[in-house]
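Extended Data, panel c. Modelled sequence:
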Amino acid sequence: MKGDTITSNELYAAEKESGTIEEQVLNNFLLQVNKLTFNQTFLNNAFARISKLNTSVILGTFALLIGGAYLVYELQGDFEQFNLQRMGSAIGLSFMILAGALLAFKLCFFIYNVFLYLKYKPVASVTDEELPTVTIIVPAYNEGKLVWDTLLSVAASDFPEQKMQLLAIDDGSKDDTWSWMQEAKKELGERLTILKQPENKGKRHALYRGFNMGTGEVFVTIDSDSIVKPDTLRNLVSPFVKNEKCGAVAGNVKVLNNNKAMLPKMLKVSFVMSFEFVRSVESMLGTVLCTPGALAAYRSTAVFECLPEWIDQTFMGQPSDIGEDRAMTNMILKQGKEVLFQRNSHVLTNVPETYTGLYKMFIRWGRSNVRENLMMAKFVFKDFKEGSKAGARLLYINQLLSIVMAYPFMIFMFFFIAMHPVLFISSTFAGILIASSFPVLFYAKRHGISESVWAYTYSILYTFGLFWIMPYAIVTVGKRGWLTRELS
């Protein structure tokens, strides 16, 4: 930018001498150039401050974890005394037995997961001739220009145009989302159909309209703040061709906005663990528990079989306006169909950059998780599909335990803090160091070591700043509301 400023001054001198440009015009021109130079300097300084802050947070994370581990070593006698005291009471002994049994289950389940993960392979992409016809549905609410980016990324897919039907539905947005849809329509022409709901009725109703208009053999749903890669659609729908039992497929969700804010950096590592490890395991059992709203595909016949129940779903007498993806997944599993995961089908999506946005998203997910686990209990222990059902039941039990034990462990945590705060702090940080090392190593192996350490920071944040989400979601499970869809 400095070189540009010098060149502009030289241009000004030459033009002034020749008398071809008025001095006032040139002054305005130079002002804009210098302003651009200042803005670039400001941005560079901002990025430098962000980089320093990130480095400080990582160093602080390691200081806490190593300090916690050191204190555990130094306070071994105090921990032994604490455990003896617990064993001396009926309640304490019962809790120790319960915690030990749960830990043993989790360790065995983890080893089993590693075994399944090592066997997982995504389904290879099929040829153009084999590809099914697809209807891509993009519901949008208050997304602004992001919906334009999403639609153009979908249109750029390596997928036969004659086999694609692209629908974008504005769910009564209050911003300029509809204008950006119209801009996308101008660029894509007949390839894109845009629709506008007369009022905001919720994502479920926007998808319902798309399902009823769809003509494809497979429905693909994509969030309107997400970007797909050129081979995403092809890879996503290939399992339907290779596996006639396949009813739905989950895409591999990655974080798009992870360049600056700290929370997206943490979530980027968390998402890799959640999708590339956890859903790979679930896919091996044919029981991916949730097809994400950011990217999912459904066999159209499976959708129409449960569509009336899905759109009219209620909870505690109120229409369900959250968890539409988990609900659809449950209903397709209930049909006896398999739900798979395609690791090679990538979508980049925006995630919250603030603590407020993050906990609201987690509250919504938590409420949906509680609701759909109650629904899944109605069929998972029945003869709901051919073949082995042990894997599906094991996955369900693991999720159910996380919900059931939310309050007992929160009560124990508060008791531990009140009675032995130093022991609690030290043991918690040491536990995070041990438990989070696997996500760190997993991410480092898959995507590089430089960002993997954010898994430690995220675990600290979740343990101390988000532990209350599940207990709160349980007691407020009947509340409605998306929480994160309104304008700032």
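Confidence is low (pLDDT under 50) at residues 1-22. This feature is highlighted in the accompanying rendering.
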